[in-house]
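Please fill in the sequence for the structure shown.

STRUCTURE ENCODING:
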């Protein structure tokens, strides 16, 4: 296949994606997360598009929190999948909000694109250059090999034959 030699750099690609995407969410999430109750209430009213009209301040804060701290988690590869789930939900609400305002696909496209990326990352995982992977490895000494296609560890052949759960 064309450019197949790049397969061995899959985890580098994930790291670049995590740093770039996470940085943008840190940048866009900071004013929302630290904007205070007035800003949170304005943001939280977007939940009304889903029929949820109570505690808009909470929902607005959660949107800012998920963008800022979710971006940080994406960069670090820490609590990666939960962060991707929160950001996917936030992008879903943002897309619905854009459609409700009449912005059409052009207005909702960034939220939809980011949502697709977060959905994909939920399945892909953070890669081996992440704190999640580092913590997983430190909890399981003796397993120092990583399957580069899945990001999961598979241990040694001896370990797999002695422990049928692998």
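FILLED IN BY: designer on duty
SEQUENCE:
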């Amino acid at each position: 296949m064309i450019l197949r030699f790049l397969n061995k750099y899959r985890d580098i690609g994930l790291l670049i994606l995590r740093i770039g995407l996470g940085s943008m969410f840190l940048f866009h999430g900071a004013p929302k997360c630290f904007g205070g109750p007035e800003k949170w209430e304005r943001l939280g009213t977007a939940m009304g598009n889903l029929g949820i009209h109570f505690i808009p301040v909470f929902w607005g804060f959660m949107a800012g929190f998920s963008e800022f701290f979710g971006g940080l988690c994406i960069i670090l590869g820490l609590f990666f999948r939960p962060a991707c789930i929160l950001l996917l939900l936030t992008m879903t609400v943002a897309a619905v909000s854009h459609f409700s305002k009449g912005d059409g696909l052009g207005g909702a496209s960034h939220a939809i694109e980011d949502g697709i990326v977060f959905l994909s990352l939920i399945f892909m995982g953070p890669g081996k250059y992440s704190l999640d992977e580092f913590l997983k490895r430190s909890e399981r000494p003796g397993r120092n090999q990583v399957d580069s296609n899945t990001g999961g560890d598979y241990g040694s052949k001896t370990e797999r034959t002695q422990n049928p759960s692998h």
